[in-house]
Amino acid sequence: MPKMKTRRAAAKRYTVTGNGKVKYKKMGMRHILSKKTTKRKRHLRKAGILSPAEEKRAKKLLPYG
Q: Which long-range contacts (CB under 8 A, 24 or more apart) does 7-15 make?
């Protein structure tokens, strides 16, 4: 049986942790940062964890994740 192909778009956005949770980088930290508060920017730095429903959908796109 051939290898399953990973959706490259998903692989670039998500990483699977050791516990099986799916991490992603939060949006909003690329440009127009001057109007955003320091607190808001600080919270955006941390990686987010997908909700169980979204996690299920993302894992279908990452067969080896």
A: 7/61, 7/62, 9/61, 10/58, 10/61, 10/62, 11/62, 11/65, 14/50, 14/58, 14/61, 14/62, 14/65, 15/65
Domain ranges of the chain: 9-61
- The residue type found at 54 is E
CATH fold for the domain made of 9-61? Factor Xa Inhibitor (4.10.410)
Report pTM: 0.84
pLDDT tens-digit series, residues 28-63: 999 999 999 999 999 999 999 999 999 999 999 999
23 DSSP β-pair partners:
15, 49
